[in-house]
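Hey,
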Amino acid sequence: MPIPFPGLQLQLAASVPFPCLLAGSFAGLGFLSWYLAGKIKAFDRGGHVAKLCIVAMPLLLAAMVAVSRVDDYWHHWQDVFTAGVLGTRVPFQLNRIASHHLLLVVAKLSSGF
């Protein structure tokens, strides 16, 4: 059976953005991971593996979604890899900016200004 609109399949394949929309998944779950790390003080050198497992869980979920998209041929691995790098790097930078700003506000409040 011939395809009634042969150009439609090419247009749909060309309309997938680079990097794929998984960057949002990585960004949201990456920010959740950094937020949890700060709240439960995962990097306090206490040696608690359970804290690191809690922090790694959102990133593992994002990685499982990414692998499923590559496995189902929804996205190319290059798109998913780029989305993963962008989606984990941007929340890290945002978390650093937000925590630095919060420290400045707390310092001003404690100094009486």
